[in-house]
Design goal:
- With 297 residues, this protein is mostly helical.
- It is built from 12 helices and 2 strands; from the N terminus they run ααααααααβαβααα.
- Helix content is 64%, strand content 2%.
- The radius of gyration is 24 Å and the shape is elongated.
- It starts with 15 loop residues before the first helix and ends with a helix.
């Protein structure tokens, strides 16, 4: 599977006519026809993501089914390579979607992420808790350990990676513990998004307006000019606006000579999600730590 870290979601079937309509013009359903295969952002729209995720899940489920039902003896090629090559659409849409939710998100993308995350978590569990698939991977692993097959360094690494991932994902647990593990993984997937969104909201909410030129001492002229433009755009011309975003926070902390203002900026940054408001993360962190501890055990 290409970057299974992105792949995860429940098995979904969509009716043929509805899927055909959703597929029309969706840039994720084929390789990007761009230099070096880079994402075709000019064509990508928000409405393309969910159908592409569903199609990618459906595609990978079919590929996994073909591996499991292969009547031939498990081999490196028909099991490990086939597994590594599965999930092409899912890898393509996941790579773009999660890069944007980290760097250039909005309310619509955040809502979609909350919907997609548990689907992807279940899909990942469906793969790594698939007992028949695990048996094939374990069989190839046993062949190498017994010296029945000789693998290159790269092939050994790939086999070892997948074998360990199945073990660490709970493939060896009994049915009851696997079911609980699925519940934990699904809950963690949504808690992680809640945590990140709270941090993002705090980042976006903080504004430090400076109205005295002497408080800009030490700051480069280009930086002050940019801050003045930001303040004007925020409806406060004649002032300077600084935020917690890297392009603003880092130069301010590095160059500003005004110690109280640097302290205000720094404390706002380190206390994101710790202000006892709607974006507070303390309870979210407690749940995440508790679930991760249970999962580790």
């Amino acid at each position: 599977m290409k970057n299974l870290i992105f792949a995860a979601a429940m098995s979904c079937m969509v009716c043929a006519c509805g899927q055909q309509a959703a597929d029309t013009g969706n840039p994720f359903l084929s390789e990007f026809e761009t230099p070096y295969g880079t994402p075709d952002f000019d064509r990508i729209k928000v409405e393309h993501y969910e159908p592409a995720f569903l199609k990618g899940i459906e595609q990978q489920n079919g590929e996994i089914k073909a591996i499991v039902e292969n009547p031939e003896e498990p081999s490196f090629e028909n099991t490990i390579v086939a597994l590594d090559n599965s999930g092409e659409i899912l890898a393509r849409v996941s790579g773009v979607f999660f890069a944007l939710t980290e760097a250039d998100t909005n309310d619509e993308m955040m809502a979609l992420e909350a919907k997609i995350a548990p689907m992807l978590s279940e899909h990942s569990d469906n793969i790594f808790l698939n007992q028949e698939l695990y048996k094939r991977v374990a069989a190839v692993h046993a062949q190498e350990e017994a010296g029945k097959i000789q693998l290159t360094t790269e092939q050994h690494y790939l086999l070892d990676k997948y074998y360990k991932e199945f073990i660490r994902s709970g493939a060896g647990l009994d049915a009851q513990k696997q079911e609980r593990l699925r519940e934990i993984n699904k809950e963690l997937s949504t808690l992680g998004i809640t945590f990140s969104n709270n941090i993002l909201n705090e980042n976006n909410a903080f504004q430090l307006f400076v109205d005295k030129k002497e408080d800009l001492a030490g700051l480069p002229e280009w930086f002050c000019q940019s801050a003045a433009e930001e303040a004007k755009a925020a409806g406060q011309p004649g002032k300077w606006l600084f935020t917690l975003h890297n392009a603003s926070r880092l130069p301010f902390l590095q160059y500003a000579e005004n110690r109280p203002l640097r302290e205000k900026m720094y404390k706002a940054y380190i206390n994101r999600g710790n202000n006892n408001d709607k974006n507070d993360n303390k309870e979210t962190i407690r749940k995440i730590v508790s679930l991760r501890l249970e999962k580790a055990r």
